[in-house]
């Protein structure tokens, strides 16, 4: 088993999967003194080598080369969602901690088995999105905890636009089982709500497909049709154990683009939370009227100063590494990733059955990120 010593210096990191999202991870992790990227692995070793050269990583190769590397203590799993559990499990078997892109897995059974495997091995699993660790959502979280809007009552979120086929040259996988707007974009919104409110108790959902087939609009395959396997629009109602409720719209069918909408309404005010797919943004609130005449006056928006890290993807991995060294729980845990997956799968089941579905999993209290958390500090 690989362990991390408080005196080991920068923690060795290896990547498995070097697709588009790897660029932002590599750019950020290369600026964090507490970690050092040692090797990149991919099924396409030429692509891995090109990314290694681009980002000055000393080695590249296959996934197995990453697992065999003696200096790698944490594996970053950026493979396709269908292989997330398989790759993460292999990393744990090799004695490595794991940071994985969302979703943690695509079914409850294999994903729960992965977390049990990590627990037995004494290893950590962290799961994206770590946008919720950024200054935007964390400033909003601290405001809610401080009672700025009184007792939180309900939330509204929305992510709607016409769909990824207008820019993606190979969008079929985004409409296949394990994706759609729910599993592709839902993790950002539901992770934010779980971070703010805690455990989801039950969900109800309705969904639809605008068409059974869609066509690629850009690239060499433009005009090629592909099947739509999952709802391309879904509306989800969440009931939290704490009594709050949430309504969430996720759509690839809307000519009107509205993304990043997160609103929290409480007994003493309403708070606008930044786009959960971003690490920063405007946080502002309004107070309820005491009274007014025939027509309500325009409400005054009051800005909340943003505080905390705005660095970008990789922040959750950094928090996990520091948590291992100080023997504390990290924030973007596998437990949270599993609960969010459970919520989304329950929403799929509700949309298919027309009934409320109880969410069996739960999460422990999720701490806030300290406002003075500095990714550029050396702490290891």
UniProtKB/TrEMBL annotation:
It comes from the Bacteria. InterPro entries: Gfo/Idh/MocA-like_OxRdtase_N, Gfo/Idh/MocA_oxidrdct_glycsds, GFO_IDH_MocA-like_dom, NAD(P)-bd_dom_sf. The keyword Oxidoreductase applies. Keywords: NAD, Oxidoreductase. SUPFAM superfamilies: Glyceraldehyde-3-phosphate dehydrogenase-like, C-terminal domain, NAD(P)-binding Rossmann-fold domains. GO terms for molecular function: nucleotide binding; oxidoreductase activity. Residues 12-126 form the Gfo/Idh/MocA-like oxidoreductase N-terminal domain. Gene3D superfamilies: Dihydrodipicolinate Reductase, domain 2, NAD(P)-binding Rossmann-like Domain. Residues 137-272 form the GFO/IDH/MocA-like oxidoreductase domain. This is Oxidoreductase. It comes from Brachybacterium vulturis.
